[in-house]
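Sharing in case it's useful to others searching the archive later.

Someone asked me privately for the predicted structure of Carboxymuconolactone decarboxylase family protein, so I'm posting the question and my answer publicly. Question first, with the sequence:
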Amino acid sequence: MEPRFNLLDSPTAAKISRRLASVSQVLEESPLPKNLRELVQLRVSQINGCGFCVDAHAKDADAAGETPLRINLVAAWRHTTVFTEAERAALALAEEGTRLGDQGVRDETWAAVRKHYDDDQIGTLVCLVSLINAGSRLNVILHNPGGSYEPGMFARLAG
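And my answer, the predicted structure tokens:
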């Protein structure tokens, strides 16, 4: 599979891409643990069918110390015993925030998120889910393939 288009070849899209990468850097400084951010992004990427993002966030989760077991089971997290109640709340928010047309974010999911996370962490989760949805959709539209990501690539774009 060859990419359809390189966003960096468009002056406007290049500016937007750099700003999105800069926003991602802000999330790196958030109070939400890196491994949880990567699992959430991995799950959203799986739902959106983004090979590039699945590749990136699986590798970044590994680099953040996640176990292969948890990385492999995030796609079926509801049917596992390896995620905490707090992680399950974040993954439910990620799924429902990605599939807004199905039912939106249910009140039960929001209550679980409120139970486990403070306001800054919740704000981070909402922004994280929104940003990875934008990124994965860009990559799917452009047919950017998975397999070539190296941890740290996005940080260089933001700089």
